[in-house]
Write a structure and sequence with these properties.
six-stranded mixed sheet, binds magnesium ion, alpha/beta, binds NADP nicotinamide-adenine-dinucleotide phosphate, 20 strands, seven-stranded mixed sheet
Length: 489
């Protein structure tokens, strides 16, 4: 087991405050909550919980910054700040990844990968900062000139979940800041620590007060942000249920812009002409990566009849070989995030036992790690497509596997879901690959791969998996608005 550094331990164990106007402050009412190490259930530290008056203060600071320092800041300067933040993240990579590993539970190498992904994102959007352009539009009257400007929205609330705490924050912060907005980040209550560490780095990088603030909170803070009449936009990643609440809050307050990256129940489709060595290498990770706590998880596996038994047998074998344990030991899978999530996942496994055939796994880990929230990778064979474990997002290491005969039947099964985030097709018939890709209702389709990401490639959901596209050039649309200027010459 890796020994945690003194810096990371001290950071994790010190009680935390809110980051408002580049200062650390307590919540006005002093409310706080605990954050827990999910590998053993121990409390790491206490964190202040922002209430209404703290959100108001942060919004005032952000509004002033937006109208002052940020308005005056050149795009090149914004790019420079994002590059500097990336550099500081790399400098502190060992400490940040250990903090994430303790707070979220994920294997240390995955936490390191997360920091590197965050750095890549910051650099990609730093490159965009001075390339956000309007257009000149010819109209009927030659004595009239029309041009457009792409302007920042203003004060942006960013609300993120606990599964990839740092990466989810940076996915939104990088484009929002590159576009010139002032951001208020609200991390998930289970995983606030890397967001707070990031705040220190932003200050060190030279971010002026109000450009980035961090409001931690448990339960109410996100809702206060979503309802705030002087916040111009909320960028959210999390459950579909909360995504709907955020849309409703926008409607009930000031029609703030909303972009949502929500749940999924993604089909991972294996045809009988697939390259089975590649399928085998990928499938166990597509099914159980991050202990299944991933919105793109290939949680519905569809296998063509002739190769179904072979795929089931191999996946079960590979799943049993996965190592499970505390993140610092760098296992294949860490714990689930919380007791709530553990209960939820075990509830789905119980429901699966009664409605489907358990192929492998199905238990909470006993023995050495029984204090942590560890669950075995679990596979159910499911013929009936209307049962809960096929229809609902479980967000744990649980997949269903079903067989299909031909393309038409497959398309009906794959699209029979309220979600539409990701999907994958395994076939060596490339025409078939493209044909199925056209017919799948999902924001991303991987052909002969899974979970491939790059900052330049748009990502987001069809149907109830979300609104808007993050990453790539698309994310600039989420954090700017277009203004048309008419000039009578
Ligand atoms: P969640 O409730 O959607 O929480 C995500 C974020 O939203 C957190 O920062 C949370 O803050 C905040 N939030 C909660 N209620 C809010 C409200 N009414 N208005 C504004 N913000 C609000 O997710 P969860 O409860 O942690 O997990 C529940 C399920 O959501 C999971 O089991 C999984 O199915 C799904 N999920 C999906 C994703 C994804 O990437 N698609 C990520 C996480 C979870 P607090 O921490 O203070 O409550
Ligand atoms: Mg925690």
């Amino acid at each position: 087991m890796r020994k945690i550094s003194k810096e990371a331990r001290e950071f994790c164990e010190a009680d935390k405050q809110l980051f408002i106007g580049n200062k650390w402050v307590n919540a006005a009412d002093g409310a706080d909550f605990e954050t827990v190490n999910p590998a053993n259930g121990t409390v790491l530290c206490r964190i202040q919980s922002a209430g209404e008056s703290d959100v108001n203060t942060a919004v005032d600071v952000a509004r002033k910054a937006f109208q002052g320092k940020m308005y005056r800041m050149s795009p090149a300067k914004r790019a420079g700040l994002l590059h500097k933040l990336a550099e500081l993240l790399l400098r502190d990579l060992p400490v940040i990844s250990e903090i994430e590993c303790l707070d979220n539970g994920k294997p240390i190498d995955r936490a390191i990968g997360d920091v590197r992904a965050a750095v890549a994102h910051l650099r990609y959007y730093a490159g965009w900062a001075d390339k956000i352009e309007g257009a000149h539009i010819p109209v009927s009257d030659p004595d009239t000139m029309v041009y457009t400007r792409r302007e920042a929205l203003g004060v942006v609330g960013i609300i993120v979940p606990w599964n990839f705490p740092l990466v989810m924050a940076i996915w939104k912060l990088a484009p929002a800041l590159a576009c010139g907005n002032c951001c208020i980040l609200k991390p998930a209550q289970q995983t606030s620590l890397t967001a707070l560490y990031l705040a220190n780095l932003a200050k060190e990088a030279g971010f002026p007060p109000g450009m980035l603030q961090v409001l931690t909170g448990a339960g109410e803070t996100g809702s206060i942000i979503a309802h705030h009449p002087d916040i111009d936009k909320v960028g959210f990643t999390g459950s579909t249920a909360v995504g709907k609440k955020i849309l409703a809050a926008s409607a009930a307050s000031n029609l703030k812009k909303v972009s949502l990256e929500l749940g999924g129940k993604s089909p991972n489709i294996i045809f009988d002409d697939a390259d089975f060595a590649s399928v085998r290498e990928s499938l166990v990770w597509a099914s159980f990566y991050n202990s299944g706590q991933e919105c793109t998880l290939g949680s519905r596996i569809y296998v063509q009849e002739g190769v179904y038994d072979q795929v089931v047998t191999q996946l079960a074998e590979d799943a049993r070989k996965l190592t499970i344990g505390p993140g610092l030991g760098n296992p294949d899978l860490g714990p689930l995030i919380s007791t709530d999530q553990l209960d939820r996942v075990m509830g789905y496994i119980e429901s699966g036992r009664s409605e489907a055939e358990l192929i492998s796994g199905g238990n909470r880990l006993k023995g050495e790690f029984s204090d942590g929230y560890f669950v075995e990778p679990t596979i159910f064979a499911a013929e009936n497509q209307s049962i809960r474990i096929v229809r609902e997002e479980i967000f744990g290491p649980v997949v269903t596997i079903s067989s299909f005969s031909d393309e038409d039947e497959l398309i009906d099964m794959a699209n029979d879901t309220r979600y539409g985030l990701a999907s994958a097709i395994w076939t060596q018939n490339i025409s078939r690959g493209h044909r199925i890709a056209q017919r799948l209702q999902a924001g991303v389709v991987w052909i002969n791969g899974y979970d491939l990401f790059h900052p330049a490639v748009p990502f987001g959901g069809y149907k109830e998996s979300g609104i808007g596209r993050e990453m790539g050039k698309s994310a600039l649309d989420l954090y700017t608005q277009e203004k048309a200027v008419w000039v009578k010459l």
